[in-house]
Amino acid sequence: MLLDSARHAAEAMQVPQCISIVDEGCNLIAFLRMDGARVSSEASAKAKAMTAAVTGAPTGSLTHERALELALATGAMTNLPGGLPIIIDGCLVGGIGIGSGTGDQDRMIARAALDALGL
Question: Can you give the pTM of this predicted structure?
Answer without folding.
Answer: 0.94
